[in-house]
Amino acid sequence: MTTILAAGVYFSGFVKDLLCLPRPLSPPLTRITMSGSAALEYGFPSTHSTNAMSVAVFAILLLNDERNTLSTTVTVYLQILAYLYAFSIVLGRVYCGMHGFFDVVCGSLLGALIAVTQFYLGPVRDEWLFSESAQGLIISILVVLVLVRTHPEPADNCPCFDDSVAFAGVVVGIDLGSWHFAKTQYIDPLAAYPSTVPFDIHELGWIKVAARIVLGVVVIFVWRAVMKPTLLGALPPIFRVIEQLGLDLPRRFFKPASQYKTVPDQRDDDNVIPSARDIPHLLNNFRHRRAISIGPQSEADAYEALAYRQKRRRDSLKEAEVPSTSTKKEKDYFSGASTTATRTRKRSASLEEFREQMGASSAVLSPYVVVTPPGANAGANPSQHSAQDEMDKNELFGGIQKPRVRYDVEVVTKLIVYTGIGWLAVEGNPILFHHLRLGI
Fold first, then answer.
1. Which is nearest to 47 in space by CA: 20, 83, 8, 17?
2. pLDDT tens per residue across span 206-236
């Protein structure tokens, strides 16, 4: 399952950074955000849809497999649950305004493809990985590292690459740990999967199960808390030497080691596993996670908003040219069959819609956009429009959420840290539980 999620995050992020297609424009769309970092990512395809559909399709394939030993009733209920899960996530992304239909449809197709590939080719890969020689393991790790290196560089500072690196590290750690753990005495010899940990909730009891969960989480947080600052402090001098030798592989939006002395301590620098100090802040966000997000939140959004602003201005100028007279208006008002009055009402409705969409009327109602109501600049000359465009552009880009500074050593640091997390999950923690008498 981890491989499926990692593939979904990587390949959806790959396409996002390759095509750089923005999320639906807000305004006119009212966006309901679920996370702060999501606004900095591109929109196509939807990673949530990819992962939800991959998990659901993989579960349905397992339930329909001839090796399924569950009863027919349980199988049907679980299939219904899988369908509900997938469609609730997919439709939820459209409802929240984070994606368009094209984003979620293509993301769902990508997820289904990943699930089918894992279902039919996963066992072949596992058999090759768990061979006596380490050839399969080495090739698997090299493939993951090549995928990390060939990840496209986006036009904007998009955090998709960070998530891909984190999941790539987890896959490397799981492969490394599973391959080695399968050769130890701690595995379940009767299990179908070679590196299965012996587990029986009735034999262990709830107290030991709870202790395993708490201890396992604590060990992972301690590993991350120790290794991350250690690597961020030790790697910059090494990277400077590599850079001087011309052997570095620079990446856009990542500051090279020659341009800084130390990596400062930064909050909210990890979208996958937060640090322990960020947990209270994260829990508070869950309580108030429904937030209305109006206005562009990335450079791609800002350029889309400028194009939308210019289109609305052109439409307003056309509406301002509609002729009307007081006599005709009065006549039409009483008769109820007026073309001019209809146009007037349409123009008024258009004005209200314009104000609502752009978040402004004669005053600034949005921190991102300053808008002049339709017809106000009907006689403005091109230089005035140009000045207004420049003002709008400055305000649009001034309101964009600035992504944090990222450093070149973070890529290797994240790979090592998450490789360790993957290894702890499949080998390190089970062996620790065994020696602490928390195992079978």
1. 8
2. 999 999 999 999 999 999 989 999 999 999 9
Calpha distance 370→317 (Å, rounded): 17
Q: Would you call 99 a catalytic residue per the annotation?
A: yes
Q: How far is CA 142 from CA 245, 285, 408, in A?
A: 23, 38, 20
Residues 48, 202, 281, 288: which is the catalytic one?
48
pLDDT band at 322 (very low <50, low <70, confident <90, very high): low
In the structure, what pLDDT confidence band is assigned to residue 83 with cuts at 50, 70 and 90? very high
Residue-range domains of the chain with CATH = 2-193 (1.20.144), 232-291 (no CATH), 299-398 (no CATH)
In the chain, DSSP finds a helix count (H) and a strand count (E) of 15, 4
Catalytic residue among 99, 281, 288, 434: 99
The span from the CA of 282 to the CA of 288, in Å, is 10
Q: Let me know if 180 is a catalytic residue.
A: no
187 phi-psi bin (left φ>0, alpha ψ -120 to 50, beta other) = beta
**pTM passes above 0.90:** no
